[in-house]
């Protein structure tokens, strides 16, 4: 596996060679037409980018030459110098030297001597005549042609390729299962080989779609500055984990969600300088956008040190909105209360503005994360601050799922929404208020028969009765919006990666199902939607 440093070096080389190729085109155009502003602007931009990239990678001499060339092109742009006379051979020599240095980096060879070139660039900046005796470029070969290793591909082409890989994986599983059923050694061998090839192809395509989250994170300093200025607040932004990689489509989908969270953190979370100083805090608020990995997931956090979420206020608002009774609200944990913030239209803001209070837009954020098979968590301490955590899959094409049986039919639940699976005897379950409860990891979790929950009747769930349970009960502990729910199923089958296809009409109108997948046996398997199941349970609970 390549090291991160090696990956960065390859990216630098690919871009640098493209820059060098473009420099050759534009400098030739500028020589023919010294007033060609587009070519001049592009040369200035290329030198600026190469300077920054070279310095970031530690190639300081290359960065110095690019900086000198950038300065010269800047003087030509501002009409302080003309692209004539002795300036022309120095500029051409500089571009040739840049090409030689880039190749030296790629081949891990010795760099050319650049003292004469640097001195001449400095003379030109000072308005002095350059020294043109001798070679401006020290190289064995200024005319070698190089092609970049970087190929730009439209994302829709990768989407199509990934869809084809998904179809291949479905057929691979079917062939593999068929080989096992028939027991033909030759077919089993071919199926095993196909299994390995399909796996490698799948991960190669997924890898090609990965981008650094920094491509999104690096856009936020300006956003934070503008929002903080509008709110008359002072905010210091910290960004980390920019090199964490994630599927480009996932990053695109969460862009608006991250913007919501950042704007809300500044608009409502972080106090004004005066309020902060009164409460003993520094006048400047702290905001952090962080990325990290946890197993196969990518975690993106938006953390502020503001006023935090007032759980009691949210509890009262939820009762006012009719989302929960006063008696039930009093028994809810802080995490359960904060979950109301993600209800559609729920807001703690006293007035609606472009940058409103916590809650405005959070239901939209939750829906976006749900669509990816991810989770949105919130932690907060009054007076200390709030942290929103987006738990995201690395890829959305192939998802991990738990297969189980119910009344002889196979179903699937995404692993992203599963905390754990347990098998309990009936006597380990308790009936409280007409509902089954199981103690899981020190918490009492409501448990319901998935068979009963999927019943088409709109009537509330009938009161729980342990006498109906016989033998060990296989229970999936699902988690959505900080709410855990135990689902009793007939039998666990296995865990595997699946490719989810959308439901066809009219089944696509049934909210409980998030799609279908095809198993290796050829059987169609319904993928249950945990958010929808949770909503149905809350509506039907006794």
What do you see in this structure?
There is one protein chain. The protein has 542 residues and is an alpha+beta fold. Helix content is 45%, strand content 22%. Strands 10-14-15-13-12-11 form a 6-stranded mixed sheet. A 5-stranded mixed sheet has the order 2-4-5-7-6. Strands 16-8-9-18-17 form a 5-stranded mixed sheet. The protein is flat.
Total discrete domains:
4
Characterize the main sheet.
Answer: 6 strands, mixed
Query: How are the strands of the largest sheet arranged?
Result: 10-14-15-13-12-11
Q: What is the CATH C-level name of the largest domain?
A: Alpha Beta
Overall average residue pLDDT? 83
Care to count the β-strands? 18
Number of helices: 17
Helix content: 40-55%
Keywords: ATP-binding, Chemotaxis, Kinase, Nucleotide-binding, Phosphoprotein, Transferase, Two-component regulatory system
Domain HPt: 1-105
InterPro entries: Bact_Chemotaxis_CheA, CheA-like_dim, CheA-like_homodim_sf, CheW-like_dom_sf, CheW-lke_dom, HATPase_C_sf, HATPase_dom, His_kinase_dom
EC number: 2.7.13.3
List keywords for this structure.
45% helix, Heat Shock Protein 90, alpha+beta, Helix Hairpins, Four Helix Bundle (Hemerythrin (Met), subunit A), 542 residues, CheA-like_homodim_sf, five-stranded mixed sheet, 4 domains, chemotaxis, EC 2.7.13.3
């Amino acid at each position: 596996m390549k090291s991160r440093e090696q990956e960065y070096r390859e990216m630098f080389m690919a871009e640098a060679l493209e820059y060098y190729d473009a420099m050759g085109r534009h400098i030739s155009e500028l020589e023919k037409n010294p007033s060609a502003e587009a070519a001049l602007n592009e040369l200035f931009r290329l030198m600026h980018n190469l300077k920054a990239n070279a310095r970031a990678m530690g190639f300081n001499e290359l960065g110095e030459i690019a900086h000198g060339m950038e300065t010269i092109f800047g003087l030509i742009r501002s009409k302080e110098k003309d692209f004539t006379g002795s300036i022309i051979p120095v500029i051409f020599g500089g571009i040739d030297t840049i090409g030689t240095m880039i190749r030296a980096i790629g081949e891990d060879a010795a760099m050319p001597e650049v003292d004469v070139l640097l001195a001449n660039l400095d003379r030109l900046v000072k308005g002095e005549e350059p020294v043109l005796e001798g070679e401006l470029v020290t190289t064995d070969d200024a005319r070698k042609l190089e092609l970049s290793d970087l190929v730009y591909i439209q994302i829709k082409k990768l989407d199509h390729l990934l869809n084809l890989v998904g179809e291949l994986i479905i057929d691979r599983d079917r062939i593999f299962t068929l080989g096992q059923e028939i027991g033909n050694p030759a077919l089993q061998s071919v199926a095993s080989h196909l299994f390995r090839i399909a796996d490698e192809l799948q991960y190669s395509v997924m890898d090609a779609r990965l981008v650094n989250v920094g491509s999104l994170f690096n856009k936020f300093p300006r956003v934070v500055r503008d929002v903080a200025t509008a709110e008359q607040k002072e905010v210091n932004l910290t960004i980390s984990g920019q090199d964490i990689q994630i599927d480009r489509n996932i990053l695109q989908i969460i862009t608006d969600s991250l913007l919501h969270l950042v704007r809300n953190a500044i608009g409502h979370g972080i106090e004004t300088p005066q309020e902060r100083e009164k409460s003993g805090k520094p006048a400047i608020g702290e905001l952090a956008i962080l990325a990290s990995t946890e197993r196969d997931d990518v975690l993106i956090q938006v953390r502020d040190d503001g006023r935090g979420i007032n759980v009691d206020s949210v509890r009262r608002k939820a009762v006012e909105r009719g989302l929960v009774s006063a008696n039930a609200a009093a028994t809810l944990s802080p995490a359960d209360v904060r979950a109301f913030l993600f209800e559609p239209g729920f807001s703690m803001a006293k007035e609606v503005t472009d940058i409103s209070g916590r809650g405005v837009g959070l239901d939209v954020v939750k829906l976006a994360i749900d669509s990816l098979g991810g989770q949105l968590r919130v932690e907060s301490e009054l007076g200390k601050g709030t942290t929103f955590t987006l738990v995201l899959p690395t890829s959305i094409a192939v998802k991990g799922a738990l297969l189980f049986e119910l009344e002889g039919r196979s179903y699937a639940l995404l692993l992203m929404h599963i905390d754990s699976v347990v098998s309990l005897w009936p006597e380990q379950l308790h009936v409280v208020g007409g509902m089954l409860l199981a103690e899981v990891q020190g918490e009492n979790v409501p448990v319901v028969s998935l068979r009963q929950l999927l019943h088409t009747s709109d009537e509330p769930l009938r009161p729980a009765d342990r006498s109906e349970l016989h033998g060990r009960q296989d229970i999936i502990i699902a988690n959505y919006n900080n709410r855990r729910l135990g689902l009793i199923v007939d039998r666990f089958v296995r865990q595997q990666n699946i490719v989810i296809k959308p439901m066809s009409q009219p089944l696509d109108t049934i909210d409980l199902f998030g799609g279908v997948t095809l198993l290796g046996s050829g059987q169609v398997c319904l993928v249950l939607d945990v958010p929808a199941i949770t909503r149905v349970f809350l509506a039907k609970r006794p």
